Amino acid sequence: MYIKAAEEKDIAPGGMKAVALSGREIVLCNYGGTFYAVERACGHAKARLERGALTGWILTCPLHFAQFDVRSGSALSGPAPKAPESAHPDPADPALATKDLKTWPVKTENGSIFVDLQ
Ligand code: FES
């Protein structure tokens, strides 16, 4: 069932917006005028992804720079080896392996963005 999440005009191309829908924390991403919905918590150590950077369809986490494909939620890379040592958890720790992001179907209608929480 699709639920209204935001207005298209609120998210410029290349922009992101965090929303809460039925208890789920989601980031809406505008890649070239198409909207995608991914979970807000980074698949590495749960940083808030809307504080990262969206470059094309690649979302980069602000904390240790793991990257994700917003179209599929796939983790493209784990924490960057050159992230500041003090802020970088042990990448060998299996509990901190970078997981893919959950995604949800999105549609737009009359200037509004809807997410199917299924
Ligand atoms: S929390 Fe996102 S890369 Fe570590």
Please tell me about this protein's structure.
- The chain is mainly beta.
- The protein has a single domain, classed as 3-layer Sandwich (Rieske Iron-sulfur Protein).
- Helices cover 0% and strands 42% of the residues.
- The chain is built from no helices and 11 strands.
- The protein has strands spanning 2-7, 16-21, 24-31, 34-39, 53-55, 58-60, 67-69, 75-77, 103-104, 106-109, 112-116.
- The strands form 3 sheets. The chain has a 4-stranded antiparallel sheet with strand order 2-3-4-9, with no helix packed on it.
- A hairpin with a 2-residue loop joins strand 5 (53-55) and strand 6 (58-60).
- The radius of gyration is 14 Å and the shape is globular.
- 31% of the residues are buried.
- The protein binds FE2/S2 (inorganic) cluster.
- Residues 42, 44-45, 47, 61, 63-66, 79 line the site of FE2/S2 (inorganic) cluster.
